[in-house]
## 1
Amino acid sequence: MGVASLTCVGTFATHASAQTDTGAAKSQTVDSTRGPITGSTRRIGLGGAFVAIAEDTEGVAINPASTAVRLPHSFQDWNVGFGVDFAVGAWLPKNDVYNQGNTANGDQAKANKSTALFGSVALLVNYRQFGVGISAEAERNAASRTQQTQGIDTSFAANFGTVHMNMAYGYLNGQLLLGTGPRLIGMSFDRSGGGSVLGTAGIGYEAGVLVKPTREQYRIAAAVKSPIDARLAAQPGVAESTVHVPWEVAFGLAYQFGPRVLNPPLVTARDIAARTNGTPTDKQLDRAAQELFDRYEARQRWYLLVSTELSVIQGGGPVGLSGQTAMDRPVISPRLGLESEVIPHYLRLRGGSYYEPALIAGTRSRVHGAGGFDVKLFTWSVFGLLKPFNYWQLSLGADAARAYLNTAVSIGIWH
């Protein structure tokens, strides 16, 4: 992600719906299952096939094991990364961002208006093979639509705050990475007409594993996120409700073709300087860091990275928005992404595709096509803070499917 990035996402989709009864109050369920891919321009451009190559601050929320990944341009025992994202979604009002399509009874659930806002901040600290990462995300999703046969206007707004706090360690000199940590979620929901706001919070856990043999060209990974159930306090005329965040399991395999090594060993400036007798001096450490930088710049640039992922998402129980129900069984989303540095030191291209399963009974699934690129812009060390990596880049990403368009742009550091 670089030191900081600004992301403007054309559409952001988090399906959220609630079941109510116009008569006596009855139990309600809110399901927060996600459909389309969101996140960084790289994850979007790769079609979400990211669990095996998640790294840097953008990997903290995807695979806890990625917190211990040391990047090939990290030359010191200690490394600190910081990332910021901000997204504005659903600025194309005709987009079916929730993939509601046709309802179970054949009505066309046409969205008249939808909005989505997303922001995140992440911090990553590494010492040798150990890593600690924290990622905080805030989302607001709102939609309104009219059920044509009944003329009923329905609007719904959902606010989500998610905090991931992960620790990971790279065993066998960083070849087997294990990570885990809690996932805290806070939510509030507002039904039509500006009515009362319901709020709740819950906690779950996540864990991940990443296998990356040194100097090999493949990675294997898996990540699991536990379900979260939290209760909404009862309101006048509305029974106590349960908010359900489903469990997710992701499996990934990545392979890199070409002369560039996917999994180089961790070598720090202290490792190089320690070859001399005695305690390394600051001057020796500086010379060693420059040597490692020169090696990094001279490495082979061309590669073709193929990344795959299979995501399994728990199906929800009965939910309702104009009589709709959620899938009552797990759904599967296969994903595929490609990435290559086609012009050495200047341009990276990526593309991908993924299958978005229908999350609501009676609707259709859809296949997405995604793509993007990174282009090197100019050098600026921010008054010496970013040396020796002071190359800035512009990144673009796009994700398109039936009645859906997602665009993203970010500015970060070129490595």
Note: The mean pLDDT is 80.
## 2
Amino acid sequence: MPSRQKNDEVYRLRSFAKINLGLEILGKRRDGFHELKTIFQTIRLHDTLTLTPTAGRRLHIEGNDPSVDWQGDNTIRLAFDTFGAAFNLRPGFHIRVEKKIPPGSGLGGGSSNAAVILMFLSRYYRRELSLNRLIRLGETIGADVPFFFIGGTALGRGKGEKLFEIRDLGERTIGLYIPDIRVSTEKIFSRFSLTSDRFPSKIDSFLKNKKLAVLENHLESVTFNLFPELRMIKEKIEMNFNCPVWMSGSGSALYTIAPRKDLSRLQTVFPGLLVTRLLNRKNYHRNWIGVSPSGKASVFGADIRGFKSSHPSFFKD
């Protein structure tokens, strides 16, 4: 939920990360993108965006991560431009970003930032946007942006913009290892080679039996060939701690879902391991999509709360 300071003119927004619970590449689309199947899952790791309205129409963005071009075409600026073009507005804001989700980690930080800004502007300007309208705006910025209007656990199809509700996994503990490596999603996909072999979907299997161990990420082989140190870290964790490790998205973040005591033991070997939790849809909504501090209704009204899957019922247990 966005919070305000006493002067009622400073807004603090949480922008949560995601992991991919499995990622399967199904083919190449006519528009040049890949057709994929994945399960998105929000986690409690988040950036904090502090917004202060200004009298003019100038947008000033700054942040603590020097690797981000804050004055260039970052996703926050693209979200402002997209919203402004849709409603003929030129909002003026000063924005400070405290970034904890590293760019190029496969955790969706930039997409999350864009979605949060679109939701904020919808509320700030009292635009009654449907979830479908927000998704259409978001997907022009990035394929992962639409998921962050929903949160929790969701099946993604198409480029990732076609979303279907899945029963939440609960707020399990997760060990997240984020090496100091920035991976280009475009580069990974450009080097991915489709094969003619057809294998049963591990994601479909997971949706039926909820066994995490069956999941796999088709992009791991490409990313690991470019960054062999990632493969070494994954293998070291799996061999010494007997727990499956996955890469999120196109990398570079690696994660395992395990009891906290096991993760504490893992931290002795990997001091940089971050222990956090999965974030279910209900708590995701409470943290951002819920009732605003002024008591006004959510930007979505009943739309997000009525979000249902169009898939067969076994997708929801």
Note: The CA atoms of residues 81 and 88 lie 10 Å apart.
